[in-house]
Amino acid sequence: MPRATITQVAARAGVSVASASRALNGQIASAETIAKVEKAASELGYVADATAQSLKRGRTFQLAYAVADIGNPVYVEMMTAIQKVTSASGYRLILSSTGDASSSVDVVRDLSRGYVDGLIISPLRVTPELLDALSAVPVPVVVLGRVPGDAGFDTVRADSLTAMRQVVDHLAERSHRDLAFINGPVDTTPGAFRRDGFTAAVAAHPEVRAQSVVATDFTIAAGYEAAIPLLSGAERPHAVIAANDLIGVGVLRAAEDLGLSVPGDLAVTGIDDTELAAVMRPGLTSVDMGAAERGRVAAELLLARIADAERPTQTVAVAPRLVVRGSTLESTERAGIPLAPVDLGRAAG
């Protein structure tokens, strides 16, 4: 069946096309005209052409969220929070995977061709090429992460330095003296700041001996591969701090395959406090980096920037919170510790 047109709606309502268009687009029109036009549109099953409306208004009512790995549960949690805010304001959210640094630049350039009204990006690596591409985007941009202070973007940051201090303090308080840190690639933003945070946190505990290992990626497989030789050696650590929960799960699997008890033989912690950390057995002690809060703030900053392009740029840091679970608690202690509830209905990536 042919799609009804605005001309047909106007004819049935007995008004001009211009009057019908004004009535349907919320512009100035009499109550009588609006009622007649809406009745005619309903009877004909008229649906406005979103593309045409976007062209007329100079807006697409679409926003983009670009991340390096759409399978990472942290990004899924951020996306859910972003979408909740943006959909309430009438925007559709488009998800884009950027992959490596060069691909990020390509994605940003594609998104700058009029497809969206704004962009939220969470890059793993912030290169000069990426900053140049972001600066050339003709729509507002919010960065989830860190950029140079003069870059001119609204940003929302995690506090990796405080997160690492909370983890190291927790383990040191439990008399763990030999700590190992399994990081992801240090040329990434989280890798660099979590490395620096670990170094600073250990320096505050002279009684602690520390070593660091760099995994090839922030994934379960990379965590497992890095953990096997670390846990098989003669200098096996008392506790392992993983740079994120995915690496932490890899460590738990490696410990199980090597016959090590967690936390009896080895304490393990992660970072991000994803749903994955809560459903592991034992549950993985982790640091809540406020993924949902960062997503919510980023979305609100983007909408505010769309409404007022001249407003001063903002940088917001979200505070971390240590969540203690069974991977660092003996069974006798777990009964006295209120553990975070598990929401099995929430996506875990």
Topology diagram in text:
Layout: H1 6-13, H2 17-24, H3 31-44, H4 50-57, E1 62-67, H5 73-88, E2 92-97, H6 101-111, E3 118-122, H7 128-136, E4 141-144, E5 154-158, H8 160-173, E6 178-183, H9 189-203, E7 209-214, H10 220-232, E8 239-242, H11 245-257, E9 267-269, H12 275-279, E10 286-288, H13 291-307, E11 315-318, E12 321-323, H14 331-334
Parallel strand pairs: 1-2, 1-3, 3-4, 4-5, 5-11, 6-7, 6-8, 8-9
Antiparallel strand pairs: 10-12
Domain HTH lacI-type: 4-57
GO molecular function: DNA-binding transcription factor activity; transcription cis-regulatory region binding
Organism: Microbacterium esteraromaticum
CATH topology of the largest domain: Rossmann fold
Number of strands: 12
Distance between the amino and carboxyl termini: 41 Å
Mean pLDDT: 86
* CATH class term of the largest domain: Alpha Beta
Order of neighbouring strands in the sheet with most strands: 2-1-3-4-5-11
Order of helices and strands: HHHHEHEHEHEEHEHEHEHEHEHEEH
Radius of gyration: 26 Å
The named CATH superfamily of the largest domain: Response regulator
List low-pLDDT spans: 50-57, 339-349
**Tally of alpha and pi helices:** 14
* Overall helicity: 40-55%
* Largest β-sheet summary: 6 strands, parallel
| Integer tally of domains | 3
General shape: elongated
Structural class: alpha/beta
Secondary-structure arrangement, i.e. CATH architecture of the largest domain: 3-Layer(aba) Sandwich
Strand content: 15-25%
Pfam families: LacI, Peripla_BP_3
Keywords: DNA-binding, Transcription, Transcription regulation
InterPro entries: HTH_LacI (IPR000843), LacI/GalR-like_sensor (IPR046335), Lambda_DNA-bd_dom_sf (IPR010982), Peripla_BP_I (IPR028082)
Protein name: LacI family transcriptional regulator
